[in-house]
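FAQ: What does a multi-protein file look like?

Like this. Sequence, then tokens, then the next protein.
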Amino acid sequence: MATKINCTYTSDNQTELTHGPTGARIATDLPPDNGGKGRTFSPTDLFASALASCALTIMGKIAQRDGVDFSGAQIEVEKEMSAEPPRRVAMFRLKAKLPPSLTGRQREKYLASIKTCPVHLSLHPDIKVVWE
């Protein structure tokens, strides 16, 4: 199934994305390290956000199926850009904070499921993904 997203350049290095099916909107801005003002998410911030959101959603889906309360679970993602040209994402560093009520086996199961997330599966192999 295809999903349409409309992207409009609004001005001053900013865009607005509109989710076709729902009309939900997200704005982007150039980051300061690329000559922008960093007033909101950059496109590569959305890329990092997509990875964290996808991984946590997959874990939450499995927890729901297992009847486990997954409320409050978090993933913190830090993105690093390459130091050398071309400008691109070089690494994602992620930290998962899962509910303390999970057993060790449950934690392992949910963390292992991250690799099944479609965003993770779509990453270029040159992008390092480090889980801490």
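And here is the next protein:
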Amino acid sequence: MSLFRAACAAFLLALGTGCASAGDDWVELAGKRYAVEIADDDAERARGLMFRDELADGHGMLFIHEREAPQAYWMKNTRIALDILYFDDALKLVSQQRDVPPCSAGDRCPPYPSKAPARYVLELNAGEAARLGLEDGMPLRLSPALQDAP
């Protein structure tokens, strides 16, 4: 039985280490690198940054869609103001929604659509787009781990 417990402990340690390496995901925009959490399935995209009280400086969330299409995001149950940045298949900035306020109105929260089809959506703390002087057409660079993702 103690061998079983040791194996379980080793498995949990390895699992925890694997989760820690998820911190290797980053994007670079206008010369600034951001550590990102990845939302690449329907459940993760729906949850997004809901119920969080803060987003650490230098961090963001990257939403990856299966294909380029018109996108619209909302702030349902989101407690922090965000910049929502939309990028196409070529990783070019195609639309920006800056300083989007938190919303606690549930399903009555308004949508914030992209002005052009997008595949990648990056959420950063409100004010980052202005601080970086972002303009449509600017490129997003992905970490090697994200470049290899399907």
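Q: Is there any per-entry metadata?
A: Some entries carry free-text notes. For the entry above: The longest strand covers residues 59-69.
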